[in-house]
Design a protein that fits this description.
heterodimer; A: mainly beta; 4-stranded antiparallel beta sheet; B: 395 residues; alpha/beta; Rossmann fold; 5-stranded parallel beta sheet; 14 strands; 35% helix
């Protein structure tokens, strides 16, 4: 009897938690805070102070720790993802903006824009264990899901630096279109997608040869080409679609990840920069820096379903299941 | 017998030489390309100034070039290219042309920070024939118009571009009635000419024009002088042309009517300003401030861009040759990242770098031109200054 009740209750709980789905965390660059959003109700639940000029954000693979780069404090802070209490700090080097986690969550790779370097941080030991010199103003950074590569993009050198994750040294450099911003690996680690803000392009690289195999030029009717500035990029796990945020063009490009044709441009908020999937990859969240909101995109029909006001200058986004 | 021996000897030498040649093709270490540049500047005398708030900076431009060389070399280590910048600083009154002629033939890329009136003297000298000159200081429209030269590229916006930038903003604000106050120097007249051109272009009304002659009663204060001087009919804004900054800063808050001041003082149009932080500019501001201990000035930015343009073109063209670098720079493929949100490039018709222009008040960035809504069939950047159909530059 009791047991039955309990399982009924847990089934009920399970059902309700499936309905509640995930929590969306958004860093607010100008509010020195983190916005916590319930995406189903489309509501801002609360705003938590996190430190000066928070930008890059990521959740550990186990979902327990939230990492936030507080750029003006020159550190990356760790927070308990449940309570949102600060649990520590990581040595990140100067002015950390973007960083990537290794697939096992043990290491963090940080772009140090002012020092032209990538810092490798041992997260458990809270120690910077390696510094790798790269080009001028490194920004976008990604670790391959198979843990063999770390790629750093330098904005002013216009280059991708291929860092071998074993030796922690650069083994190749490839020139790319002007001002590369973000890089992302496909789930199979076979391709790397890189956006170039100034050229208005996406370049797809074959990881094995490290050669560009495809270039996608974005072109939105009625929007001046100067305003098409690709930044954030994500690709779904089946490599069916890729999504690129086009900055002041205020749109997300939906790209067929097999044919590399742009299927659609979705109108979102102003100056859209960063993107994150829901855990089931049925929704996509975008940060819109100038309109101070996030957009929710339903990926089953590729429609923008909601926008939620979050605070000043939303920058990065992470989603907790 | 001896003959045969001789032939064998030759043959064996030939074989040996062949072997050496074959071996030469093999070595793995790639050859580093050396790209040589010169920064040629002439020292200036400290001009008279209204106040000591902004100390006179003798080396404007030079640290910008230095920073860009170091950026180029950071990239170059990955592309097997090395950049060398030789600096030649000619004292005030020194022989600029002689210094230029002594540069020799092996350095083809020259960044100039010299008075506008000397630029064509250098560009026309036989030494300049196989060189590409980057004018990183002048704002002269004539040098980009009827007096243009094929071997000179201009980095800073011209006076016409600056005036157009201000006019676009004022049109958006609907502040269309202007009162123009012009200083007595030839440079002030040129600035006023650019203001008049843009007024016509954007349908502004020049209500009044007066010349400031510095001969107001020295027994009176500027408080009284300027109130009296500005007693003209009604207008929306006072546009001042005072390039050296000898009186323009006195105007604001002292005019007869409560009107804003724009032009060379008040709200200014500039290529770079310390209030500019967007589009990664804060990174460049920080790097410059860290190495020099002062803010980046327009001339620093211009020298930075000139050397970065050389870096970008030589990396993409994979060449250290002047012609290849120039061809790439003037091609459609060339884009330069200038921390202003859009790619910069050169106008093929007059060698001017096309770029957004900042509209800055002393402590606030008010706007960035081209202002939204000013359209152009090719690029909105060409709504600033002399567009291709209007140019008087015919190489």
């Amino acid at each position: 009897m009791n047991r039955f009740n309990l399982s009924a209750l847990s089934a009920l709980l399970l059902f309700s938690s499936a309905a509640v789905a995930e929590t969306v965390f958004v860093t607010l660059e100008k509010d020195n805070a983190l916005a916590v959003v319930d995406p189903v109700d489309g509501k801002l639940i609360k705003t938590v102070p996190v430190g000066q000029r928070p930008r890059g954000i990521a959740l550990s693979p186990d979902g327990k720790t939230l990492f936030i780069a507080t750029s003006d404090e020159h550190t990356i802070k760790t927070f308990d993802a449940e309570t949102l209490k600060q649990t520590g700090k990581l040595p990140s080097g100067e002015d950390p903006e973007t960083f990537a986690l290794s697939p096992d969550g043990k290491f963090m790779y940080v772009s140090n824009e002012d020092d032209s370097a990538v810092t490798v941080v041992d997260i458990a030991a809270k120690k910077a264990v390696h510094t790798i010199k790269v080009g001028v103003e490194p920004e976008g950074i990604a670790a391959s899901p198979d843990n063999t590569w770390v790629v750093s993009a330098s904005e002013t050198t216009n280059m991708l630096h291929w860092i071998d994750n074993q030796s922690r040294s650069i083994v190749d450099n490839t020139l790319t279109d002007p001002r590369p911003r973000a890089v992302a690996f496909t789930a199979d680690s076979k391709q790397l997608w890189a956006t170039s803000e100034m050229a208005g392009t996406l370049t797809v690289f074959d990881v094995a040869s490290r050669q560009a195999v495809q270039s996608v030029k974005f072109d939105v009717q009625g929007v001046s080409s100067d305003l098409i500035q690709p930044v954030g990029v994500v690709i779904d796990k089946d490599r069916r679609y890729g999504y690129v945020a086009l900055g002041p063009a205020n749109r997300i490009a939906v790209i067929d990840a097999q044919s590399f044709k742009v299927e659609k441009y979705l109108l979102v908020g102003q100056r859209v920069w960063n993107l994150a999937f829901s855990p089931d990859q049925k929704r996509l969240y975008t940060t819109n820096g100038v309109s101070n909101d996030i957009s929710l995109i339903d990926l089953t029909d590729h429609k923008v379903s909601k926008s939620v006001a979050v605070g000043r200058y939303p920058w990065g986004v992470a989603v907790k299941p | 017998m001896i003959y045969r021996y001789f032939v064998c000897w030759i043959l064996s030498w030939a074989a040996l030489l062949g072997a050496v040649n074959a071996a030469e093709k093999k070595p793995v270490p790639p050859k580093t390309q050396l790209i040589k540049m010169v920064y040629l500047a002439q020292e200036r005398e400290a001009p008279a100034a209204l106040s000591n708030l902004d100390p006179f900076i003798q080396n404007k431009g030079e640290p910008g070039a230095d920073l860009a060389v170091s950026d180029n070399n950071t990239t170059g280590q990955f592309t097997q290219q090395r950049y060398e910048l030789k600096k030649v600083i000619v004292p005030t009154g020194g022989d600029l042309l002689k210094a230029f002629e002594q540069l020799g033939d092996d350095i083809g890329l020259v960044v100039l920070n010299v008075p506008a009136e000397h630029i064509n003297l250098l560009a026309d000298s036989p030494t300049a024939r196989n060189k590409l000159l980057f004018d990183a200081a002048s704002r002269d429209d004539e040098l980009r118009g009827s007096q243009c030269r094929r071997n000179v590229l201009h980095i800073l916006p011209s006076r016409a571009m600056r005036a157009d930038a201000l006019a676009q903003y004022l049109l958006k604000k609907r502040w269309q009635k202007w009162f123009l106050v012009v200083g007595p120097t030839p440079a002030d007249r040129l600035y006023a000419d650019a203001v008049k051109r843009t007024a016509k272009r954007f349908g502004m009304k020049l209500m009044e024009e007066k010349t400031w002659t510095h001969d107001f009663d020295s027994h009176r204060t500027e408080q009284a002088d300027i109130a009296q001087f500005t007693q003209v009919g009604d207008y929306d804004v006072l546009v001042v042309a005072d390039e050296q900054g000898l009186f323009g800063d006195y105007l604001d808050y002292r005019t007869w009517l409560p009107r804003p001041v724009i032009g060379t003082q008040g709200l200014i149009a500039t290529a770079w300003h310390r209030t500019h932080e967007q589009w990664g500019a804060v990174q460049l501001q920080n790097r410059f401030l860290e190495t020099t201990g002062r803010w980046m000035e327009e001339e620093d930015y211009a020298a930075y861009l000139a050397v970065r343009a050389i870096g970008e073109a030589s990396v993409r063209a994979k060449s250290s040759q002047v012609q290849a670098i120039k061809d790439y720079m003037l091609s459609n493929a060339f884009t330069l990242q200038g921390y202003k949100g859009v790619p910069l490039s050169f106008r093929a018709w007059d060698g001017q770098l096309r770029q957004p222009i900042l509209l800055a008040a002393p402590r606030s960035l008010v706007g960035v031109a081209p202002i939204e809504g000013f359209l152009h069939p090719k690029t909105e950047l060409d709504t600033l200054g002399y567009d291709q159909p209007e140019t008087t530059c015919h190489y």
